[in-house]
UniProtKB/TrEMBL annotation:
Catalytic activity reported: AMP + diphosphate = 5-phospho-alpha-D-ribose 1-diphosphate + adenine
Protein name from the UniProt record: Adenine phosphoribosyltransferase
Highest taxon of source: Bacteria
Source organism (scientific name): Sphingomonas cremea
Subcellular location, record wording: Cytoplasm
Source lineage: Bacteria, Pseudomonadati, Pseudomonadota, Alphaproteobacteria, Sphingomonadales
GO cellular component: a single term: cytoplasm
Assembly with partners or alone: Homodimer.
Keywords from the named record: Cytoplasm, Glycosyltransferase, Purine salvage, Transferase
Any one GO MF annotation of this record: adenine phosphoribosyltransferase activity
Alphabetical list of InterPro entries matching this protein: Ade_phspho_trans, Adenine_PRTase, PRTase-like, PRTase_dom
NCBIfam families: apt, PRK02304.1-3, PRK02304.1-5
Purpose of the protein: Catalyzes a salvage reaction resulting in the formation of AMP, that is energically less costly than de novo synthesis.
GO biological process: adenine salvage; AMP salvage; purine ribonucleoside salvage
């Protein structure tokens, strides 16, 4: 899909050595600032989704912008996946590894009804740790994963493979080499 979205790729800024030395951070905030580019991103992601979706599970923080817009486009609800301690009320949580550390994600215990068809959405796929933690949360709640969608994939870090190995269908709009 990469060549079909070169116009969107041009709107992504690369910030070297963030959050630590050696990392090339792919920043979609510049894409989000472009109304036409943002709209094309959501439209392109929507075309990758087959079948009904009850909930779009958006991962904090840039995933909220993408997930919220995609949920509206798909006629679905928005399920927030946040860092642990950020949601009020009863939650369930999962630990996960990042390409440069570890963290913990949470969601409300009542946010996903058993049998709900859920699509995970985030801005970027690296190692897949964040998306896999979100998938574990959704499955613990009884949700049925229908796939995962990303604006950017860093294929060298193996996230697409990890999600596929976990039985999760993955689609991204563009790939970037390096990390």
């Amino acid at each position: 899909m990469t060549s079909a979205h070169d116009d969107l790729r041009a709107l992504v800024r690369t910030i070297p050595d963030f959050p630590k030395s050696g990392i090339k951070f792919r920043d979609i905030t510049t894409l989000l600032l472009d109304p036409a580019g943002f709209a094309r991103t959501i439209d392109a992601l929507a075309t990758t989704v087959e079948g009904p979706v009850d909930l779009v599970a958006a991962v904090e923080a840039r995933g909220f912008a993408i997930g919220g817009a995609l949920a509206v486009k798909l006629g679905a609800g928005l399920l927030l996946i946040r860092k642990d301690g950020k949601l009020p009320g009863a939650t369930i949580a999962e630990d996960y590894a990042l390409e440069y550390g570890t963290d913990r994600l949470a969601m409300h215990v009542d946010a996903c009804a058993p049998g709900a068809k859920v699509l995970i959405v985030d801005d970027l796929l690296a190692t897949g740790g964040t998306a896999l933690a979100a998938a574990r949360l959704i499955r613990r709640a009884g949700g049925e994963l229908v796939g995962a969608r990303f604006v950017i994939d860093l294929p060298e870090l193996g996230g697409s493979e990890a999600l596929s190995d976990a039985g999760i269908g993955v689609a991204s709009l563009m790939n970037f080499k390096g990390h």
